[in-house]
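Changelog-adjacent note: as of this version, every example in the card shows the full chain rather than a window. The one below runs 319 residues end to end.
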Amino acid sequence: MLRILRHGAPGFETGEVGRDWRLPDDAVWIELVDPSRAEEVSVEQSIGLLLPTREEMAEIEASSRLYQEDGGTFMTATILVNADGDLPTAAPVTFVLVGQRLVTIRYVEPRAFSVFAAQAERQPSLCPGGPQTFLGLLDAIIDRTADIIERTASEVETQSRAIFSRPRGGAFEQILNRLGRAQNINSKARDSLVSLARLLSFASLADQFEGDRELRDHLKSLQRDVQSITDHSSYVSSNITFLLDAALGLINIEQNSIFKIFSVFSAVFLPPTLIAGVYGMNFEHMPELRWMEGYPMALGLMFAAAIGPLLWFKRKGWL
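Full-length structure tokens:
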């Protein structure tokens, strides 16, 4: 799908790309969402640049993601997608600055794009040109990522209370699942922040920002925001690691307690079992076989043999 935001226009324009299609002269933001090859070719002919393919966008080398060519600045960042769903993912999104126009290419639906697009429709003054639109869009992406990390930190705090205040014998499976999901989202958010930091550093060298102090100050502000959010993400990650280790440690302690109980009872019942085995052999010449007090004596020995280890273990503090 091809969407075009024109300078001062109240909303996006969409439509079919025909043979005689031409890009409007006042187009500020050209958005390619899961584009067809015909749409890509039409935009390429209009801006005079070759756009990266989906396979090229997925490359991880910096030279394939950040470069300048024929007067255009190509920048690809990894954006967190579906953070509210069951399967959060990170997908590449490409930004192309050519003159006063911004071209974005994406095959996913990040919420930050829809949020910023709605703002741009209500306030066309937010997008007077491509560089301003680019920075506003990055601002929305960074804010969205910060909200995700903040929500993840809140979830981690909730699970921390659940771990250290849970009743003895409570299940850990749900806690571990939630911590694992939090770590998954946080790691993908951090990867996105790292790619955004590289993109902003490269964008500061772009020709579109030279000589405009306001735009460069906005770039520096975004770089500081990304750095601070990345530091917070690292803290959340270390907290999750600690909680996972604590949960596994508590599981091991409870398992050891269970095994200790079994070991104690095995040691307690072993001497009575030995006594019962000796006096249960029924040999003809056993001295106690026809003794009137033999049965109560054997029961007494078995009771004493069971109580003795229990008292010993309790004295040693093993119980």
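Structural remarks: The chain has a mean pLDDT of 84.
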